[in-house]
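FW: tagging you since you asked about this chain on Friday. Here's the raw sequence from the shared folder, copied in full. Didn't touch anything.
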Amino acid sequence: MSQGFDNKTADTRKNFPHERKLKEVTDIECIQKSLVQHFQEIKDPRVERTKKHQLTDILVIAILAVIAGAQGWEDMENYGISKKQWLEKFLALPHGIPSDDTFRRVFEFINPEELNRCFLQWVETLVTKMGGEIIPIDGKTIRGSYDRNQGKSALHIISAWSSEQRLVLGQMKVEDKSNEITAIPALLELLDITGSIITIDAMGTQTEIAKKIIDKTGDYVLSLKANHPTLYNQVEEWFKKASAQQFQGIDVSYEKRVEKGHHRREIRQVWSVPVSAINNLYQPRLWAGLQSVVMVVRVRHLWNTTTREVQFYLTSLHSNAQLIGLAIRKHWGIENQVHWTLDCTFAEDACRIRSFHSPRNFALLRRIALNALNRELTYKRSLRQKMNRTAMDNDYMIQVLSSCFLDSTLDSSESLCQA
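HL: got it, structure written out here
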């Protein structure tokens, strides 16, 4: 005799120990109030006579929809329609669910600076002590925002990433006819980097950026390439001679790591020397706080080829190959865990939203969603699967929101929301 559905479901649950019981949350209204509180400084760009829907309702639905995988305005409307009965429990919705055109018009004209300030204030409530944290900073172009007919270049955004806490700490738009060199100091001004290690690729290897980091009591590891030809050639030549002599008589710190995975074997060697070891280094005083110069050699063995790469770095850290090597490896986290995720999971590059402020505002919504999904740790699946589950399961959406829009979830009898 075949077993009934109930027994089969119970057996299935026993066989999947990764399915943890969701933490109870007293009231979704508490989460909604917390969420609105973080974004209440945003001014409504609409004229009074055209306001059929409350701005708070539009913002909340938009954030929930992007967490659930929305990639455009119609997706937001469809999410709202599908979840209307649930949303009515904690949103006003005086005229039902806003249309896709309403979402588009509102986010076209919301001041992105105001939205960004609210984002930064929200992130401050999530991060713990940043001392010793490694913070990679890198830029990403949203290719779909390019509009040839309007003569509009693609939006380029600089982001700061907390490698340990897996949070986007902040972002800054690179202005048209400008580059990352001007945007990075502006982003650093918004962040508390006391005691942190900032890693930046060659574009950000500038004396003013190094000074900015030191002035804010942080440390830096900056990639040195041919955009500083005199210094680069001198460092390259010095390391060639020192390597040929096996660094005899030189105070050198050395680390070697071998990593295997994805049908690849990589040997990474790090040599770090104090600045004083290199005689007549080209204008070292221009680099505030410069302590060490570093060479990294990476040899990758693939199934059909072998590659060798040599990279040099300037750093304000004392000569410690292990710590500096860790910071350099962590820098790639912003590429793998932010930029790649935004493209492959959130389809950012494929997004064709291009009008007015909407590309920048929608980009920030994606980063809110990325942070929220990263904060929820009870469901041990990929971000895509977590995203899918928030779209299907209201209780899990509440769990995701409670992990980032409340100080804690309900683990005790104490109420999360005090009247």
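FW: DSSP finds 15 helices and nine strands in the chain.
HL: agreed, and The first strand starts at residue 134 and ends at 142.
FW: great, closing this out.
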